[in-house]
Amino acid sequence: MIADILVAGLVFGSLYGLVAVGFNILHRPTNVVNFAQGELIMIGAMLMAATPIGGLPWGIAAACVMAVVAIVTLAEERVAVTPVLRRSSHAVGWVITTLAFSLLLAEAAGRLWTDQPSTVAPPWPLSMRVEEVLGVRFSSYQVAVVVIAVAVVALLDVLDRSRLGTALRAVAADRDGARLRGIDPAALTRRSFLLGGALAGLTGVLAAPLLLASVTMGLGLLIKGFAALAVGGIGDNRGVLVAGWVLGVIEAAGAVFASPGSQSVVLFAAMLLILLIRPNGLRGLAVQRHV
Amino acid sequence: MTAQDEELIAVSGLSSGYGAVPVIHSVDFTVRTGEIFAVVGGNGAGKTTLLSTVSGLLRPTSGSVRLAGTDITGWSPERIVAHGLVHIPEGRRLFTGLTVAEHLRLGLWNAPNRRRVERERTERVVDLFPVLGERMDAYAEVLSGGEQQMLAIGQALMREPRVLLLDEPSIGLAPVVIQRVFAVVDRLRTHGLTVILVEQRVGQALALADRGLVLRHGRVEAAGSAAELAKDPALRVAYLGAAAAGDQRIKE
Question: How far apart are CA A51 and CA A35, in angstroms?
Answer without folding.
Answer: 25
